[in-house]
Amino acid sequence: MKFRGKMIELLCIRQFTNVVMTLAKISKLCTIRITPEKLYFIVLDEKTVRGMPTLWCVMKQAHFFNEYNMVGVSSEHNEIYLSFNPDMLAKPLSSLKFSHTAKSVKVKLTNKQSPCLTFEIELPSSLALTRQCVHDIPVSVIPRREWGNYQEPTYPSFDIGVRVPNIKLVRNVVDRMKTMSPNIYITAGNGAFTLTIETDAASVSTHFKGVYLENVNGITCDMPAGQTEVTAKVDIKKLSLFLFCEQINPSKVVCYISEDKLVYIYLEHEDVIYNFFIAAKMS
Question: How far apart are CA 276 and CA 168, in angstroms?
Fold first, then answer.
């Protein structure tokens, strides 16, 4: 197996850094699936609906990498699966989020007593020289027999799908609400997107009006007969962690709800797509 890539565009370096930092917020364990055309970041959670990851992130390598070369486990199975701690990668990359000086970032699969993803960050220095920072991130190679656990999820039919307005404002509202309740009710329908928490003292709701229906990924929605809106109660901390993605200024955010079963949030920004799944709690 071989993998090597190089990024030199500052915007792409920042985007890649944002992806890694989001992963570090959500989980302590992540899987990267490397293919000739795309990179996939996958987070699994035993509490998620069966067959659904917590997070499925897709990146088109051609958008990010100026140089890219990979050789999988075989010609028939030309892919590589690695698991790692995203926080170990987020820390050395965090300085690049606001950096205006990084000249390039190289990433390659190496073997330094154990498998590693080695990041070589080239930074300018004085006297027209350059300096290089090297970070080795330990990884575990996932054997071929376990690849089936990391395949793209199949999407069920949902009750409703709506375009989410002003994702940054939604995140601010959720962050305030999570100090008051461990759960949040997400409701969509009747041209509105509503967030509600309930406490012993009060019920607090924020309503976003002018919301319209939308479908992506060929997903179908079928509102139950006689209903005009759909609600699901979810863990507010999990929702808040995912909304950290708003920092990439997504061009499209769509929320799907299967009443009392599942919430699926699709977030798109240029050549990065996030798919976030969170199981609903019984009301």
Answer: 17
By three-state DSSP, how is residue 108 classified? strand
**What's the CA gap between 99 and 10, in Å, rounded?**
8
Helix residue ranges per DSSP H, the chain: 10-26, 61-64, 86-93, 167-177, 236-242
* Residue-range domains of the chain with CATH: 2-150 (3.70.10.10), 160-279 (3.70.10.10)
Task: Tell me the per-residue pLDDT of 116-137, one tens digit each, with 9 for 90 and over.
Answer: 999 999 887 766 667 888 999 9
Pair type for strands 67-71 and 2-7 = antiparallel
* Separation CA 159–CA 222 (nearest Å): 5
pLDDT tens sequence across 240-263: 988 988 877 888 999 999 999 999
**Integer Cα distance of 12 and 45 in angstroms:** 29
